[in-house]
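Let's practice the habit of predicting before peeking. Look at the sequence and jot down your guess about where helices and strands might fall. Then scroll down.
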Amino acid sequence: MVVTSTVLDARALPTFEQASRTYRALAQRLADETANQAAAEIETLAREAERVSRCPVKFEDGDFGVRITAVTETAWQHDRDHHVIRVRQSLAPAVKLHMRAHQLCGLIMQAEARNAGTNRRFTTDETNRVTALGEIESELDALRRAVSANAVDGVIDQLMRGLMSQLYNLPVDMIIERRIATRHPALRYAQVQSLVLLLEEAVKGSSAPEIVRIVPRRILHASRFLNACYAAFIDHQFAGALAASVPYIQMGAMERGLKLFQLWAEQTQNLTPGAEYDVVDKFAEELRLREWFSWQDDTGEAATAPGREGSSNPELLARKSPAAVFYFLEILNQLDRMDVATVQRVAADAALAGKQGLDYGSPDKSYRVPAYGEEMLSGLEVMCVMFAAFKRVAPEQDISIDLHDAYQKEKAFALHEARKREGQ
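Done guessing? Here is the structure:
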């Protein structure tokens, strides 16, 4: 009915809405029933990824930060002889299978691009950040009223990082989901179950009153248009059975979303390895976000530390001090819950994560400090973790990181102690 019918009467809409709910429930049941076939498909995909990338793949479960469901640590970015795919431990089994398939397809695409010499890394540097801030400066009043002065820069960084992640991932994710739907039918019902969860999260992130109230319009609208594009793709892929577009029609975002989807459909008809990054550029131009990010060639061995933006730039680190205050407040709360031995391991793991240099000019979450947690961290966050942990276990040791201004007692540490006294 969803595929063939034309709705001419609004009174029929409840029937279609109920049909969508029924389809979702049926897909969940069938995902459980076809779990063995889906798992076999994952093994096939893993072998393909290992063949194309010439490195083995390891799977791990983990716990991540907000809205992160899975990450891939490629061998070439982490200087290892294998890839690691981590999926959120708490997900339903069928959703885990789909997430693994999604990460494997993304890994295959990256490896194909590297083999063709066309792979690129999406990144943001200080120049991009200054440009973006200049474009949204007039829209920050509501955010500044709602957030403490010490936390404003950190929140702005998070919002811009979130939008850039969405801009990069969404058009690529659509290519991956099309691959799964067309090449791996055994994963169909796991895919539906997983996409339903992603759609629900996206709607919440686009419409929650506390978000709408403070997020700069430029960021909010771009995010809604991207989500609407993804919803249009899902409805196209599943013939409208998931009714994904309805919330964005209600938000008034669907016209721009459809325009992005049509652009995506045109640009992805005959993809060659690495051409997905051109699609990201097209999206960025349509949304006027092209100056908010940069590309780095990634066609051979992983870049060495000295070439990373901000790896030895004290002036840049000083400009990052407000964001560091924001990070320190969370880090100090975390360290309070750890015993001395654990904090010592955190300090050691953070130092190990930074042994090849830390890119604290980029907000990209490219590092991990195992003793601190499973969540991926930016270079600046790792530096803050290292600094705070050594302050706890070896305050006399000079680790040559100049974050004293952000940490000193009239800033992060004082705020942290004040919150503890107030019971927050």
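How did you do? The beta strands are 57-62, 70-73, 83-88, 120-123, 294-297.
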